[in-house]
Amino acid sequence: MPKPADICNQYSCGLFNPILMSHVLLLPTIFPACLLSAKMSPLIEKISDQKDFKKLLRTRNNVLVLYSKSSAAADTSLRLLSDVAQAVKGRGTISWIDCSDSESRKLCKKMKVDPSLKEKGVELLHYKDGAFHTEYNRALTLKSMVAFLKDPEGAPLWEEDPEAKDIVHIDSEKELKRLLKKEDRPLLLMFYAPWCGVCKRMMPSFQQASTEVKGMYVLAGMNVYSAEFEKIKEEYNVRGYPTICYFEKGKFLFNFENYGATAKDIIEWLKDPQPPKPQAPETPWSEEDNAVYHLTDDDFDKFTKEHPSVLVMFYAPCESAFFLFFFQRRLWHFASILTSKKKKKLKHYSIFSPQAPPPPEPTWEERQTSVIHLAGEDFRESLKKKKHALVMFYAPWCPHCKNSIPHFTTAAELFKEDRKIAYAAVDCAKEQNHDLCKQEGVDGYPTFNYYNYGKFIEKYNGDRGILFVWLRKKKTSIILLFQNHTLGVGNLVSCPSVQLSFSFLNI
């Protein structure tokens, strides 16, 4: 008798074999199963056992679960989710639970999920850091689902708004170049970031205008917040959000800078587009009504003799400044000199030969240490190679981070010979790491996450002054206790900057 796989393979190839005709009645039970296996990506984890599901949630911190009333009901969703799983590989996990079989039915009941109550017989639930997070109720598209799994707490995509149907949504540099090449109509393009408040306030007006001028003008939007769009931001001088650029026949002409514009304002501007008006020249500080004495060569010496306590600011035309100091309850007199015109006085006070400031101290990343400094593009791949990795997410300006860096660096030095252990750091202040830090649940500095072969295991949530680092080594957990700023390690290790206490616990 032919095997089910043979029937499946020959049937799907359109072959006719008389020998198989006697087994045609088997097709209703065999063929759907082989079809399903062909559609579903191996990246989707099918779960039926409660223990397996608990383990999945314990070892993965970003899981989207498809619950279905039957395998047939899951068919359409699994096709889409197979593509999603490939797109978020290493960053998110897709799982499927078929509530129709006996074992899975118990799991669905345990999780209090009944997909048969849903119109299409399926329900999508998201789990974050081992616990239920939210029901997925956004657009059932590849782009929306990938965006959700990359940032489960982020705002929906602009294109998910039904009112934005007439906006041209651009996803890549390739799409942008294609649009500029083929579009003959005038184009107004908003470069934006999804978190930008001004962008969000402008979007409804932009949407309404796009509908009203449809066919005559093109209004488009492009989220360029990600580091992959640095080249585009440089080309179009995107220094803040939103940046709105006007194009004719694919060529950039100038910016639209009315960030409080209504739909009517945008439409009227498109009828007669004009570059931004140049800023009015700044009124000289000396002509403003203020409490500062503005001195010249003619009265400088006389004024300083009459007022023994004088604070003088030598400046060149720029933003106005005003200083007010009190010293021993006596108001000092304030004076300023227009440096660009009073070079003689500057020379007298040696303003032209200042000492060069000392060079800045090297950053943590620039120093030679055993800490691995990671960024968004190499984060997951680097951690996959390490059995135990402790990652410190930090900002250079953070006082707690500055206190932790010496201890973290010393710990990395102690384990530098062990290739299975890594101490890594991510600078969340860098724009290219913003998405990564948000994805890894960083909501304060420093944040310490422990990973096992690239999979998030645990976040340290204790006092920042006492950091416990769990490093699983064979069947033993090594607990390193970094406490205060002193040292005393007994006979285990001699190290001049960190107190380390070692305990061994069986796991």
Question: Could you explain how this protein is built, in words?
Answer:
This protein is of the alpha/beta class. Among the domains are: 106 residues, Glutaredoxin; 114 residues, Glutaredoxin (3-Layer(aba) Sandwich), CATH 3.40.30.10; 108 residues, Glutaredoxin (3-Layer(aba) Sandwich). Helices cover 29% and strands 24% of the residues. The strands form six sheets. Strands 1-3-2-4-5 form a five-stranded mixed sheet, sandwiched between helices. Helix 8 links the parallel strand 7 and strand 8. The protein is flat, with a radius of gyration of 32 Å. The relative contact order is 0.06. The N terminus and C terminus are likely disordered. Keywords: Disulfide bond, Endoplasmic reticulum, Isomerase, Membrane, Repeat, Signal, Transmembrane, Transmembrane helix. This is Protein disulfide-isomerase A5. One of its GO terms (cellular component) is endoplasmic reticulum.
> Residue share in helices?
25-40%
CATH class of one domain, named Alpha Beta
Ends distance: 50 Å
Structural class: alpha/beta
CATH fold descriptor of one domain: Glutaredoxin
What would a concise description of this structure say?
By secondary structure, the chain is an alpha/beta fold.
